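Standup notes, protein team

Yesterday: finished cleaning the Solanum lycopersicum set.
Today: Ubiquitin-like protease family profile domain-containing protein structure.
Blockers: none.

Input for Ubiquitin-like protease family profile domain-containing protein:
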Amino acid sequence: MYLVKSDFYLKKGLDIASHHRYQGHTVYDSFKIVYVEDLPQQPAASLDCGVYVASYAEFLSERKDIPADLDPEEIRLRYGALLCNYGNQKIQAGAVNDSEAPLKPVRNRTENNSSERITIL
């Protein structure tokens, strides 16, 4: 309903009545809602909400299951390393802004089942 009221479809030039992805649906029931139980929750009074939101967005966009045990510190380190690497690529390319920067590499995420922690100094 929000998308309809905010003229999202109109602004995007989408004709819902004839669009193949919306066949058999109305503008009010176009999205499948899935309820997921046992999602990891940030501890009360923690300031990790951004880490959890970014992680959920990443897992959902890659269509991967959200792990039951998210480690906010590990995620911060990973995102920090990705940003640092991208910043170094921009410097090497002499880019002043993101439009001049080289394309961001596709991330190949591998699962690490090891309980060993690596300290980055």
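Follow-up from PR in the comments: The chain has a mean pLDDT of 77.
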